[in-house]
Amino acid sequence: MNYQSILDSIQKEISSFKNTGKVATYIPELGKVDAHKFGLHLQCVTGEHFALGDAEERFSIQSISKVISLSYALKLAGNSIWQRVDVEPSGDPFNSLVQLEYEKGIPRNPFINAGALVITDILMGHLKKPKEDFLHYVRDIANDQTITYDESVAASEMKHKFRNASLANLMKDFGNLQHNVDDVLDFYFHQCAIAMSCKQLSEAFTIFLNYPKGDHSKQARTLEPILAKRINALMLTCGFYDESGEFAFRVGLPGKSGVGGGIVALHPKQYCIAVWSPPLNAKGNSELGMKVLELFTSRTGISVF
Amino acid sequence: MNYQSILDSIQKEISSFKNTGKVATYIPELGKVDAHKFGLHLQCVTGEHFALGDAEERFSIQSISKVISLSYALKLAGNSIWQRVDVEPSGDPFNSLVQLEYEKGIPRNPFINAGALVITDILMGHLKKPKEDFLHYVRDIANDQTITYDESVAASEMKHKFRNASLANLMKDFGNLQHNVDDVLDFYFHQCAIAMSCKQLSEAFTIFLNYPKGDHSKQARTLEPILAKRINALMLTCGFYDESGEFAFRVGLPGKSGVGGGIVALHPKQYCIAVWSPPLNAKGNSELGMKVLELFTSRTGISVF
Amino acid sequence: MNYQSILDSIQKEISSFKNTGKVATYIPELGKVDAHKFGLHLQCVTGEHFALGDAEERFSIQSISKVISLSYALKLAGNSIWQRVDVEPSGDPFNSLVQLEYEKGIPRNPFINAGALVITDILMGHLKKPKEDFLHYVRDIANDQTITYDESVAASEMKHKFRNASLANLMKDFGNLQHNVDDVLDFYFHQCAIAMSCKQLSEAFTIFLNYPKGDHSKQARTLEPILAKRINALMLTCGFYDESGEFAFRVGLPGKSGVGGGIVALHPKQYCIAVWSPPLNAKGNSELGMKVLELFTSRTGISVF
Amino acid sequence: MNYQSILDSIQKEISSFKNTGKVATYIPELGKVDAHKFGLHLQCVTGEHFALGDAEERFSIQSISKVISLSYALKLAGNSIWQRVDVEPSGDPFNSLVQLEYEKGIPRNPFINAGALVITDILMGHLKKPKEDFLHYVRDIANDQTITYDESVAASEMKHKFRNASLANLMKDFGNLQHNVDDVLDFYFHQCAIAMSCKQLSEAFTIFLNYPKGDHSKQARTLEPILAKRINALMLTCGFYDESGEFAFRVGLPGKSGVGGGIVALHPKQYCIAVWSPPLNAKGNSELGMKVLELFTSRTGISVF
Predict the structure, then answer these.
(1) Burial of A277 by CB count in 10 Å (0-12 exposed, 13-18 middle, 19+ buried)?
(2) Binding residues for substrate, per the UniProt record (chains A, B, C, D) (predicted)?
């Protein structure tokens, strides 16, 4: 597959793309980003890699961190985590309390905020220094020791914590949160506030690729195939809030978006691709990011379907 | 891949499986089936095929017909159908009115009952003799002219039509149904009442395999890759009512179940597999069928993830 | 109490009232009414009565009929009816399916459409000729043999039956409707299609006044005090769709509205008052009607609170 | 009316009442109460008063405080409060988040927890020392300077604050709470933790009686008739969680219950009656308390209906 020429053709096509999306502003720090930033990085199992635009500029990964947290919790706690969080699409916006109340404090899946708060609570039960340990894990899977938290973003999230505090308190009331609510929120907001580039994200997500056992250096950091399969399934069914069906339909890859404008997607055994464009569509996903990934799977003719 | 030995090992394992499911009885005709029936048919793109148990015995395909109806509607009406039905998981039971009311008569996806009723209404706008034409389409893609409606099942569905009549009238009220409610229900119940075997189903669903263009005899009946991709994405995200996430998680294939106890699943470019065991779990999917498919993708080590 | 001077002052005040409401048009027949019509009739237990404007012009009573149907069902079937319909405010619009689904086909109260359909079904179980018998009951309590159905309104309702058909089919599915759906709808739509004037309505509703036993001619038609108390309680908590709290708050009387623009309210042991002005506010209640009744209880200084 | 003989007959009848209710235990302090306690106090506008059982023993008034808080907020802030809280029955349990989310942080009425939290927030904007000032108001209307907070109950509520903290944070997120969440909760829990007897409650609630102007000593503390009318309407439509319709139906008086087992009800211009029995029915209202009040209005033959 000649990825370079496909990427070139995509770059050409999107040069005239009229973005109707809006940069997230629910916390001021996110609103400061340049709306015209665009980056893409493709990392293949063969070792080949390709880049477009601002591929090495770091941005707030936000909800993309939920996949990393889930993989870490599965490594540490195994399948016991599924007693506290379900694996079904929610059919509701990412921060909905309605479903959580009807379903007695068990979040629908680990990629809605409520689910990620439970995963955070689980991690806290297994880590001595949660924030430090988590950062080490991220650096390890991304193979880059410079990755760090953006503390001003984390602080801003804490200042506007009310919706997430409502979710966390509701789960606490149902007995599905063991630690102090503010401690859980602080750790959760730090996860969201990690700054990474498309290059770093596409490297980190190779742990979900299920690729052959030859590559020993990487092997150590790779998830067991059965865990990677499950996380990929969750990304495909639940990775894009209440637009997950649309993404599966148009792009056809497991993936995860964040309100910082990033999207990571992957084709098991083949490649990871990360794209970044801050303006979000009405459902909270990067408008241009989704367009680019749709073009990519259409032109390669390869998706999981 | 030595499919035969994998299937043999599965058959051995399930011989001691304790089924806790229950045969559907909401219409008396479905309740008459022998709960111990079990069949499986695997149809590979290579032409190889494998069978277990009652693979050639016909049963009521019920909601599996929704995939066939969707493929026919897409062939006839193209992407215009998405103005009348969405592509998102519902997060609610298959016959829920709640979501339909909140979302003004636009069903969440074509695989919940409301969505299938809209697809039925669309087909009626394109077919001269809907029931006859639809049967010809099914016979054509399954390459078997003996397939037919089970009229006693269709009549029984009509006698217990009230929940579906409620859905249909609600959509009619919202303006999302063009034909007479009872005519739509009659055609819809006939689609559900088609009787097919695992062998016939696994053959019919090869139209979604996106396989290479060499096989000219089959080619004529195969869907365009872009349509197959979309239907596969929908099966993966919405094919198992509110257990779709669980199926993706455990099995990892696009598929569709029916309350007659059948499940069809497929791996694009590789194979279709149909399995049949009448007792259903609490979510309405064949308990043993899901177990068998989970064993199959675990032992082959191949899923779309 | 000098009712005449109070009514005169109200008429003066509303002469400059700017109505922002809209005449109901969901069936064409209702839309034909003159939006400027206004009538009021006050019937006191003393026998005194007072009128304003078009007090003797007949209009479609619509949902006001639900109170009459309930009183008739209570007379015929007694408290057994409460096994099939509850007595709580719904907190949702009058034709909502959501609550009905969550609550397994038991309507919240007899004054939402679903509840009135159940009451209709109950009446059918006790009446030989439902439509004739019901009309006799209405004529009897209103003491006026000229009252009749507006068949063109009933026919128009039937033609646009879909939302109510959805409700009825859902209850049928839950086993809370014994008769044929279309027969229930036909009888229900006839009840709604009764044409009465403010004068006739204020006379009919005196059966709920619980007034002293001296008046023997009327006594025969009056409800037992315990039944009248219950119906009055229901009118106060549930009589104005999801604006019942507002009506209790501003007017402070038991009452019932209809989309034809009529409202009947009453003060137990004192008077009935009926008012008619077709334009409806956003919640479906007569805008001017509510205003007039608020002025009336404010100026008399008398409400049940 | 010979109230004494009616009360005697009620006491006799309930001596054999088999209580199936359960004492509230969601906070340990409430669970410590003796389930067999029973008190009743009737305070008439004439000055007459009557008592049964433990009429002077103090208990935790809990949600009964919501009516007192509302009256105080109306005195201080007038009708501006209705911009932040609605006046409709909720149709959902008293602590439901669902409706609050759908309705953008505006609680349905001041008697569900969310609404009372908003009222608390409003009071904080008008009071220099909220807890002290509120206590003075209660002592003033009850004409008893010994009334005080039960600090152990307030502390226990704070320790189990999570459901209310979830509500408060959600409203904070919607912008409908101006003060610090924990400060609002602390003040709110103190209101709930006031300890009063039936005698004190029936005295305090005379401010809602709208009685003649002759009694000058009391007059100073009495609410304006227009405010009393509105609060009475709210008690009738919303005073008993999702059993408000049932209470209106069986008892027919404005009233308010608390999970401490108390109920206060009143007949405008005639009397206040307070009753206390700790075991609650499934909807959270005193089972015996409702029974006694139903007997009372049935045997006197007087209710607002």
Answers:
(1) buried
(2) 63, 113, 157, 164, 188, 241, 259
**Would you place residue D95 in the very low, low, confident or very high pLDDT band (cuts 50, 70, 90)?**
low
Q: Do D245 and C210 touch (CB under 8 A)?
A: no
- CB of D167 less than 8 A from some CB of A: yes
Max Cα–Cα distance, chain B, nearest Å? 55
Question: Has residue D203 been placed in a domain?
Answer: yes
Beta bridge partners of A255: A265
Are A32 and A8 within one domain? yes
The span from the CA of D263 to the CA of D250, in Å, is 14
Is residue C101, in this structure, part of any structural domain at all?
A: yes
Q: Which of A168, A194, A220 is the last residue of a domain?
A: A194
**Predicted pLDDT at C216:** 47
The pLDDT assigned to C220 comes to 47
Contacts of D305 in chain C (CB under 8 A): 210, 228-230, 232-233, 236, 254, 268, 304
Contact C305 D252 (CB under 8 A): no
C104 touches chain B (CB under 8 A): no
Q: Does B98 touch chain C (CB under 8 A)?
A: yes
Tell me: do B8 and B69 sit in the same domain. no
**Are residues A98 and D97, on separate chains, in Cβ contact within 8 Å?**
yes
Neighbour count for residue D102 (Cβ, 10 Å): 10
Instruction: Write down the residue that tokens 């019920």 correspond to.
Output: B62
Neighbors of chain D with 3 or more C-beta pairs under 8 Å: A, C
Handedness of CA B172, B177, B179, B184 (dihedral sign): negative
Q: Is the pLDDT of residue C92 over 80?
A: no
Same domain, C254 and C169: no
- Average pLDDT taken over every residue of chain A: 92
For the cut 90, the answer to whether the pLDDT of residue C292 exceeds it is yes
Chains that touch B (3 or more CB pairs under 8 A): A, C
Residue C248's CATH number: 3.40.710.10
Of A207-221, D85-99, D205-219, D232-246, the least confident: A207-221
The whole-angstrom distance between C85's CA and the closest CA on chain B is 19
For chain B, first and last CA: distance in Å?
A: 18
B224 touches chain A (CB under 8 A): no
In this structure, the answer to whether residues D170 and D118 fall within a common structural domain is yes
Question: Is C1 part of the contact surface with chain D (CB cutoff 8 Å)?
Answer: no
Range of the domain at B88: 63-194
Statement to judge: residues C203 and C182 lie in one domain: no
What pLDDT score does B221 carry? Answer: 60
Please check whether residues C26 and C81 belong to one and the same domain: no
For residues D52, D55, D56 and D61, what is the CA-based torsion angle, rounded to 10 degrees? Answer: 180
Residue C185: predicted pLDDT: 98
Paired residues of C263 in beta bridges: C257, C275
Residue from the list B168, B170, B172 with its beta carbon closest to the beta carbon of C97: B170
CB contact under 8 A, B166 and C102: no
CA dist A41 and A252 (Å) reads 18
Are residues B156 and B28 in contact, defined by beta-carbon separation less than 8 angstroms?
yes
CA distance C138 to chain D (A): 22
> What is the average per-residue pLDDT within C167-194?
97
| Residue C305 covered by a domain | no
* Domain presence at residue A305: no
* Same domain, yes or no: D44 and D81: no
Low-confidence ranges of chain B (pLDDT < 70): 92-95, 212-221
Taking contacts as CB-CB distances below 8 angstroms, the residues of chain A near D167 are 166
Q: Is B238 in the same domain as B284?
A: yes
* Shortest Cα–Cα distance, B158 to chain C (Å): 12
The pLDDT value recorded for residue B222 is 72
